[in-house]
């Protein structure tokens, strides 16, 4: 079962990395893949079967993608930085 989950995750990583064209799209796809991985692990651990892992992966991918999309404002990616005084601020990603 673990090899099937690992194979599915690797396939999704490769597929999503090929479909994402811009930096923002790649970052959003990365959040989706990360969410799918965490969801698959949690779903497999809770459900104890492949169906739970697939359900967790689907929910995690959706949540991860929403987090990735939420980090852009008007199509501009913002990141958190720390200045020389230790204060945090948000600005366009470099």
C-alpha end-to-end distance:
41 Å
Helix content: 55-70%
Could you tell me the number of beta strands? 3
Number of helices: 3
* Helix/strand order, N-terminal first: HHHEEE
Radius of gyration, taken over Cα atoms and rounded to an integer in Å = 16 Å
Q: Kindly report the average pLDDT value.
A: 74
Organism: Brucella pseudogrignonensis
Protein name: Glycine zipper family protein
Domain Glycine zipper: 32-72
Pfam family, one: Gly-zipper_Omp
Description:
The model has no long low-confidence stretch (mean pLDDT 74). The chain has helices at 2-19, 23-47, 50-70; strands at residues 72-73, 76-82, 88-92. The protein is 68% helix and 15% strand. It is built from 3 helices and 3 strands; from the N terminus they run H-H-H-E-E-E. The chain has one domain (2-92). A 3-stranded antiparallel beta sheet has the order 1-2-3. By secondary structure, the protein is of the alpha+beta class. A hairpin with a 2-residue loop joins strand 1 (72-73) and strand 2 (76-82).
Task: Describe the secondary structure blueprint for this structure.
Blueprint: H1 2-19, H2 23-47, H3 50-70, E1 72-73, E2 76-82, E3 88-92
Antiparallel strand pairs: 1-2, 2-3
Helix pairs in contact: 1-2, 2-3
Brief summary of the model shown:
By secondary structure, the chain is an alpha+beta fold. It has three helices and three strands.
């Amino acid at each position: 079962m673990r090899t099937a989950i690992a194979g599915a995750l690797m396939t999704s990583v490769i597929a999503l990395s090929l479909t994402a064209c811009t930096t923002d799209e790649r970052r959003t796809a990365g959040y989706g893949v990360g969410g799918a991985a965490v969801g698959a692990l949690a779903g497999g651990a809770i459900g104890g079967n492949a169906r739970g892992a697939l359900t967790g992966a689907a929910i995690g991918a959706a949540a991860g993608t929403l987090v990735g999309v939420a980090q852009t404002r008007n199509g501009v990616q913002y990141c958190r930085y720390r200045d020389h005084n230790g204060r945090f601020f948000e600005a366009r990603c470099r």
